[in-house]
Amino acid sequence: MIYDGTALDRDRAFEADVAIVGTGAGGGTAAEILAEKGLRVVLVEEGPLRTSRDFHMLEREAYPQLYQESAGRRTKDKGIVILQGRAVGGSTTVNWTSSFRTPAQTLQYWNEHFGLHDYTVGELAPWFEHMEKRLNVHPWDEPPNPNNAILARGARALGIPTAVIPRNVKGCHNLGYCGMGCPVDAKQSMLVTTIPAALERGAILIHNTRAQRFTLHGDRVASLECVAGARTITVTARAYVAAGGAINTPALLLRSSVPDPHGLLGRRTFLHPTLISAAVMPEVVAPFAGAPQSIYSDHFLHTQALDGPIGYKLEVPPVHPVLLSTTTPGFGSSHAQLLAQLPHLQVIIALLRDGFHPESDGGNVGLRGDGSPLLDYPISPYVWEGARRALKTMAQIQFAAGATSVLPVHESAQPVTSLAQAEHLIDALPMEILRATVVSAHVMGGCGMGSDPAHSVIGTDGRFHHLENLYVFDGSTFPTSIGANPQLSIYGMVARNASRLAARL
Amino acid sequence: MLRAIARVMLQGALPDDGASLDAAVHGVRVAIAGLPAAVQGELQQLFGLLEFPPTRRFVAGVGPWDRASDTEIAAFLQRWRTSNARLLRSGYQALHQLIMAGWYGNDAAWPRIGYPGPPRFP
What we know:
The structure holds two protein chains of two kinds. Chain A is an alpha/beta fold. Helix content of chain A is 28%, strand content 21%. Chain A has a single domain (2-504), classed as FAD/NAD(P)-binding domain. Chain A has 13 helices and 23 strands. The model of chain B has no long low-confidence stretch (mean pLDDT 94). In chain B, helix 1 packs across helix 5 (70-81) and helix 1 packs across helix 6 (86-104). Classes of the chains: A alpha/beta, B mainly alpha.
């Protein structure tokens, strides 16, 4: 059963075994597993229900409809732009399909620092395998598009290893518009897999409906209060799952005034702060066409210790007019000239692995006066050092691949035509917010997991330490960033925790 | 005000007709309408500052928007873009983001940048 909360003619109350807030990687995965066990599930989603018929591959439609804050969500000081989904399926509806298991060294660090002893490669493997099968995750078997192929070519020329990205697609048309919602239902997002399956098993989905707060009674959640336009919707359940994603889940818990004896709620929110380098190639690249991400390099995650200078993953983004024009520095004729080269543009991104060093403790989610979330993420000198290094690496790869010019994306940068010039330029760039362009598409943490309630918000099974029947099943539970695109980490860990919850109920 | 700023921000990108500028400004208004109330409130403050004559002269250093020259407006944008005050830089970035998105989301913007638009299928 599906309800549009804003179309209800009166306030409504629902009863369930499990109430789930959010329908992204965490909520979707949990809903299917719980519904399959015969439990009554109610899913509440803030965003709209849109399907492939609505996905017209147009940025002007997709960003306002399918993203938080029209794809322009910013940190408190405006220094970082955050891409995060807001629709049935959450970010899985609009992500670029890259599917990596949680890196072994990240799990090792969690084991040592947060007491997550059953988060090992071996113990999680069956859960990753299960979700990979469910979502048809497999290394992309078509040739990479030129944007990705150039990353591979430049890296190879420098002896930097790259590999093919596993993607969660079935019958992919290789169009390149994953970020605007898959128009052919090839992407195996929650929207076309787990959510329909849960609905078939009797789950109820209420969309366009914002979870306002949990009401508490003693050491339990008593109900979930939601708002949809003028309507109030109340859900009562035996167990409650917060799966609104990082930023939104900690905000929901803050609005609910849940116990937070150690002041940890919303802290240690991570972003994989991402730097961008744009190159003009002699050949046609058409970076808007073809599977957006198919090649990556983890080389610079491994060149120094995990808790040494910050490492970064290299990937490429899809390049479409709105994302490109809003991200390209400058205005007027210099900006227009750069955009006119779009068919020849090649773009690399470096995702900095935050959260593994004392000078990288992430951001803090708070609430605005109206209850909406706001992430304060100051960028430390430690992170800026990595940003400068990453800009140099990307320029190096682009020149090695034959670029005629490279622009490190920064308000004080101009396109340069040699590596020596690029290095000179990058050394001199002031590394400050609102000068260097920093973006994020991976929001993690804020309700960190751990075995010790004095140092974590959530237990190893996903249960909130201080309430009996409240669980968090999403990327907000990660105690550091992942060091890879996070969707498969969420799927695998939530699949295990949701199965444990089902057994308990 | 938005029209004047968009005209300069998009110099070299806009075809030389009033309709394109109209489309860009319309795009900006649609984009603003889709933002959450808290962000709209911040933009209203920014626009208020730029429209109210005493603050306009003080923070932007330009005369009335309908008479300001391209050079004058470009100098204002450049000052904010490179300012040492974060608040001014964030004001510039907000204008940049809205105006670029407002224009480059339109089909009319694409021929100039060699973007063929979404593919047709099957």
